[in-house]
Amino acid sequence: MTDYRLLPAGDTALTVEFGDRIDRQLSNLVLALARCLTEASIAGVVECVPTFRSLTVYYDPLLLPYSVLSPRIARLMQGLHATEVAGRRWRLPVCYDESVAPDLGDVAARTNLTPAQVIERHSAPTYHVYMLGFLPGQPYMGDIANELALPRRQSPRMKIPAGSLAIAMTMTCIFPSETPCGWHLIGRCPVPLWDVRNDGSMPLLRPGDKVGFAPVSLGEFEGLVAKAADGQLVATPCDDVRDAAA
Amino acid sequence: MKPSLHVVAPGLLTTIQDRGRFGYQHLGVPVSGALDPVSLHAANLLVGNPPDAGALEAACVGPTLAVEADDVRIAVVGANAAIDILPGVAAESGRSVAGLQSVQLRRGEVLRIGALTGANVLYVAVEGGFDIEPMLGSVATDIRAGIGGWQGRALAAGDRLPLRQAKSGQRGEVCLESFFVSPRPRIRVIKGPQADHFPDSEVAAFLGSEYTVGPSADRMGMRLTGRKIAHSRGFDIASDAIAPGSIQVPGNGQPIVLLADRQTTGGYPKIATVISADLPALARLPVGSKVSFEAVSIDAAEAARRDYVAELAAMTDKMVPLRRAGADITAHLQECNLVSGFIDAAA
After folding, report:
1. Do B47 and B105 belong together in one domain?
2. Are B26 and A49 an interchain contact pair (Cβ–Cβ within 8 Å)?
3. What ipTM did this prediction achieve?
4. Do A54 and B190 touch (CB under 8 A)?
5. Of A39, A157, A190, B8, which is most buried by a Cβ count within 10 Å?
6. Residues 6+ apart with CB under 8 A from B128
7. Per-residue model confidence as pLDDT tens digits over B27-43
């Protein structure tokens, strides 16, 4: 039986908390319950928000009072297993050239590694997308190699470019749009993660997806950025990014 | 030319808002929407729109808008403000009108709304609404993500907001004589979701103290100043979702109530959550207001929400034809288009 707590978040939201830390097992439970709830399509559930360690269920209490929703969630929990939710696999090109990686040298110095070792250790793993948040379509991916784990920068930057690839604590992230940011910038990804303004489009990455990084040169990066600007760069799962024009 | 409202002056922060963008929080998209959905509802009803339609939300200082359509019917609801209808862009004075009523403006006339007092925001609804495509199901503006509303941003001078209707409908004007704003001495909350991150004595102190709405309140959050709240085990938590009305306590111990433009997730413990029935009343409070909180049960919160929804539904029945003083009958007839040709004759 899975341990969990039901935490009311006001009268229109309920958080199902599986634990208090960032953990793959907990994430799998969160995503499994999210899928269960979606499949159950309970009248009165407005939406579900998965995070590292909890699932928040937004609901309309006039259609679905807490006294009805909470036992329904308890019943769903009985059949829940922490099986890995099948996510799509991606391999995204990223450029670690120092001209687009302003913190690479600093990260190397603080971790007693060379910049090449930082790149090698960052690009080796396949990451799990825990959740989207902070900006529309922004994936929190982990876990990064222990030796790369650093607290956030002391002074956040006021503005970083869209596509910035960054690390902080145990996570790595690509920022889909320009934003203030306190993470360490170690590269740039040319593939657009989500143009929210393009109506009908959806974010590239979803919770549960698996993401690997393919280092590219600055020249290749600039070519891919130009293609992306023309709408000619299309990423597809389970494969390398393809040039749609080719 | 497309019927529109020409933004002569944008006000301090005027955005298009509706009830918000639901169903995309799992993708990191904030809900946004009106800070005060009760006033939005009323403004829309007065001009005959669906109650959730997109309208202008103004903060601090209202906009000045010139009519570039045959005529438009508008209603202003929310904070107190001087509302003047000027005969043209160059005019300095005109007739002043009250809020909580519908009023017709003709081509070339200018609606000028002054500084807001008594509440944080007001709404300007236009009959037929703005001709703007919803984004992810809503026309609410999310300035941070740059989506929705008018070009994903606050209004700027020179904007022309397209209208769905070139002419207002033929009907008399209406007003709301009473208007429920759920004024409560204490805002009701449900404890949690992270009340257990605070000693019981600190939760009690939070509920027993009076707070002041701080100067940096915005659409994302209302910063409160007052009794500092201490955490029992640090102020960093692994991010979880942020419900509307969540009261988070960051490291400095000063609570922040998360409002419409809150991010979908965040990493501070949340001591309590404002109940949905009281959130509009809280969000309406201007800077410097005093506020205190009381904890209620989920059952009590659900009962309060039923009352809130019933009051919103009853608002339609509280609309009455606008009564006019005798001296004002000519203007009234003009507005009702009952004496066509009168203006030419008088000119």
Report:
1. yes
2. yes
3. 0.90
4. no
5. A190
6. B47, B49, B163, B164, B165, B168
7. 999 999 999 999 999 99
